[in-house]
Structures are given as C-alpha cells and as structure tokens.
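Teaching note: in complex prediction, the entire set of molecules is handled at once rather than each chain in isolation. The prompt given to students was simply: 'Predict the structure of this complex.' The entities are:
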Amino acid sequence: MASTTVSRFRELGKKIVAVGRNYKEHAAELGNAVPTKPILFLKPTTSYVTQGQNIKIPPNCKSLHHEVELGIVIGKTGSHITEDRAADHIGGYVLALDMTARDLQDEAKKKGHPWTLAKGFDTSCPIGDLISKDKLPNPENVQLWLKVNGQTKQDGNTKDMIFDIPFLISYISKYFTLEEGDVILTGTPSGVGPVDKGDVIDAGIGDVSSFRFQVE
Amino acid sequence: MKPTSAYISEGQDIKIPLGCKLLYHEVELGVVISKRCSNISPSDASDYIGGFLLALDMTAKDFHIEAKEKSRPWFLCKGFDTSCPASGFIDKEKLSNYSDTRLWLKVDGVTKQNCSTSDMIFSVPEIISYVSKYFTLEVGDVILTGTPAGSGPVHAGQTIECGLADIAAMKFAVVELN
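The expected output is the structure of the full assembly:
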C-alpha cells in the first residue's frame, strides 16, 4: 500500500529528475553522441499537468516536441543508494511526457546555457496516475508508445535503455538526495517530433497506463 | 534551477560533490515568493515578494565548464546536495533598499566578493516578471538573483563567511564528501 506521499506524489513530490539520451536511437535521431554517463536535468513540479488540462506552448517556442517516458516514483528517501538496494526506494511507476521546446533547447545548447526554459516550462510534464509495483512487475521490458492525432510516432521498449533503472537511482542519488514523492523520468525512445496547436497526444506504457492530452 | 534538496543551513557543511576538483563560491541575494503567480508584470512584482534570504550558489566549476563545452544541462554542476547554503528568512521591512545593498563574501578571512546589488543587470522586479512568464511561482519558492564579480575556488578545510550588508551573515565550512 503506497504511502500518502507516494500516492500524492504530484502534489507532495519536490522534484522531477529527468534523464536525457537514454535510448541509443533517440540520441542518434537528434545527432547526439551516446553518453558515457547519464545526462541529468531538472523539471520543477510546477510543470505537472494531469488529464483534462492542456499542454501550452511556452512563449517564443516555435517547435514543441513530444517525448514519452517511464517515470519512477521514489518511495523512500535516500542518498548514495547502491544498485542492489535501488528497488527498496521505488514506490511505484508513472507514465509521463517530457515536453520539450526544441528550438529553445537548441539555442541553449549553442550558447552553453542551461536547459531550464526548454524543459521546465509550465505544462511541460503531463503526468499519469501512480502505477503500483505489482501492476508493472517488469519495468525493464515494457512498451512505450505515443500517437499524435491517431498516428503512431513513438513505439519503443524500455529494454533499449542505455542506463537501467537501478543504475539511474544509484547514480542520481550520489549527487542529489532522492526524496519520497520525487519522480525520475528515465528517457524517451526514438520518434520524437513536433506538435502544434490543436493536436491530440495519446500515449501509454503497454496496456498498463495511458492518457490523452491536447495542445492548446 | 536548484532542487530544494540542495539547501543547507548554518551548522551543516558544504560537501564537495563526487568527482569535483574545482568548487566555486557565489554569494547571492535570494527573493522569497509570497503568493502564487504567473505571467506578472515588473510593476506588480513587489506584491509577490514575501521577504529575502542570503544564499550561496555553490558551483562545481569543472562540471560547469564541461557542461557548457558539451552543451549539456547545468543540473549536476549547480544542483548537488549542499550546493545552496541559505540563511533564515529576512522580513521585507528589514531590507527595503534591496536594489542597493552590499553583498560580501570572505574565504578564510580574505575578502573575495564585495559588491552592491545596484550592479545587477536585470532588476529584481524584471527577474520575477520574466521567470513568471515560463514558470508558475509558488509560495516559498526562492529566486537567486545572481552573483557579483569575485567568484572563485574553495577547498576542503576552508571557511566561507558571507553577508548581506549588516542585516544577515553566515559561515560555512567546506569539507570533502568522504
């Protein structure tokens, strides 16, 4: 039975730690090298939106991209967590989108600036309901899919992650204490692309969890 | 962005993050938000200031240089545990002249940073307004408004003292992660 903080992770969690380029084909499709260590960035919890709310294109963004991801909800606070203890810190899972202002990100990368605007704007983290651990016994081998206006754009599997879940929890917690209710977004498979005003995104983790969001 | 897990208060130590060989100090004025807001104008911004704090934006400079070279995010270099030593809350009334207040920092008694907030390129109301266009600001959120010249390295065993005029001061030791 999930604790209150885990079941109310969207309101009580303190941070969303996201992993970039964790799928080989996704790294390649954006012309990026495969990283030798996880690339981490932060999304604030003000970026959460739930089904029924819309995704809003941020100011000055002309290229908003979708990215479907498997999220891990932290169930026990910890730092310097070893890989063999990582599972003890998982409270559950969640479906999420790491909406990205791709043009703002490209500009930030050219100038060596932070990714905060490109990744953290309001509505940049559409988030589903908590998935209990017993509902997702094999998070390391599950389909991640996304459609835009009914057309499949992303169709991957978490087995293609470069850095697996125990490694990510261990690595992240060496630098940042992970707190109960925090979420780790574990990366997106290939097939990312732009969405426009009026588009409808459907996404899911296998047939375990799905949601729909409209772009305003 | 720095996560709130980065906060430490006086009595706790600044810990050099794993693999960092170049830790830098940066003394800053922090603004504490009093009301939830988004998309506000600079002229309305002061209505949303609840108070202030003195903070250090500790930075793993070697990670920072690498991140800029490789176009990577700044999270690791700016957000590690203990990267935000912060003072207690400073009432708005105690700092009515926040746009012209001295910020100072010493390492082992030697002054390294000593400047006025009047040197800020973007004013506090402009910063609040700009941030609120992209991110809803919530009660208790903090905006760190940048550091003056003089940012430089600190090593394990050294002590940082810093202050906001004669309104707030704090002291922190730098230690190895062990």
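Point out the following to students. The CA atoms of residues 53 and 139 of chain A lie 27 Å apart. The first strand of chain A starts at residue 16 and ends at 20.
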